[in-house]
Amino acid sequence: MSVTVKVPAKVNLQLGVGPLRDDGYHDLVNVFHAVSLFDEVTAAPGPLAVTVAGASIEGVPAGPDNLAARAARRLADHLGREADVSLHIDKAIPVAGGMAGGSADAAAALLACAALWEADVPFETLLELAADVGSDVPFALFGGTALGLGRGERLTALPCAGEFHWVFALADGGLSTPAVFAECDRLRAAFEQEASWPHESPDLLAALASGDPKALGAALTNDLQPAALSLRPSLARTLAAGREYGALGGLVSGSGPTCAFLAADAAHAAELAAALDEADVARTLVTATGPVPGAHVLP
């Protein structure tokens, strides 16, 4: 017997970063949006192990250091049992790309192990266990479009009308999320910028609720973007090309280095992806839509 769970990537439509907290984290205002790039995690009986397959998986840890293995151990501890599960990850979400691929795999592992072990775990409990594993893990379970507060783990669903069309420009190599946050703090100190408490953008929430892609494109923001550009200056060229070729809006996704561009519709997304590919500003261009559901067991 085995269980396979499909889980989406995310893009941050707004990422507001507050002051550094005493526990080493920042208070965030995160507007998460799940998009149609998916990993699949398969759980089967066996000693705890993780294997990984897919394109561009360099740097993804196999074995017990993978976040999915940590999620399996956390659920097993909660249930008072052994984490006797073999996990196989088929990756399509970019690695270290700011789209929460590792967190998505952890969320999928939680759901897959619960099903494999026939454990009746309430969804709210799964969200709590997910938050213990990582800040972005709960949203991969939650899906759709949501406001995340605290470290991003306190989630509230947001109204989102219609479907939005995206082009993602994937870069060579990844960026370390802790390194990007540290660079954000360094830049603020260097320019004597005091971090203010972030608040959700009324313009962005209104654009989501109305399904207006032009308004949404104008409202996209990411406080980590200057830090990502500082660590990877070539991303400035990618963002400029997106604007030049008609994206309704663009930003670095999360901690980067993936750049996300909003298109008016499917045809516009295809045209924009082709133009960016011709401009040679990214390793790979992929299109996707959102919002999509969170992690779910495949039949």
From TrEMBL:
The active site is at K10, D136. It catalyses: 4-CDP-2-C-methyl-D-erythritol + ATP = 4-CDP-2-C-methyl-D-erythritol 2-phosphate + ADP + H(+). It comes from the Bacteria. Its EC number is 2.7.1.148. Pathway: Isoprenoid biosynthesis; isopentenyl diphosphate biosynthesis via DXP pathway; isopentenyl diphosphate from 1-deoxy-D-xylulose 5-phosphate: step 3/6. Keywords: ATP-binding, Isoprene biosynthesis, Kinase, Nucleotide-binding, Transferase. Residues 66-144 form the GHMP kinase N-terminal domain. InterPro entries: GHMP_kinase_C_dom (IPR013750), GHMP_kinase_C_sf (IPR036554), GHMP_kinase_N_dom (IPR006204), IspE (IPR004424), Ribosomal_Su5_D2-typ_SF (IPR020568), Ribsml_uS5_D2-typ_fold_subgr (IPR014721). Residues 205-278 form the GHMP kinase C-terminal domain. GO terms for molecular function: kinase activity. ATP binds at P94, V95, A96, G97, G98, M99, A100, G101, G102, S103, A104. Pfam families: GHMP_kinases_C (PF08544), GHMP_kinases_N (PF00288). HAMAP family: IspE. Belongs to the GHMP kinase family. IspE subfamily. NCBIfam families: ispE (TIGR00154), PRK03188.1 (NF002870). This is 4-diphosphocytidyl-2-C-methyl-D-erythritol kinase.
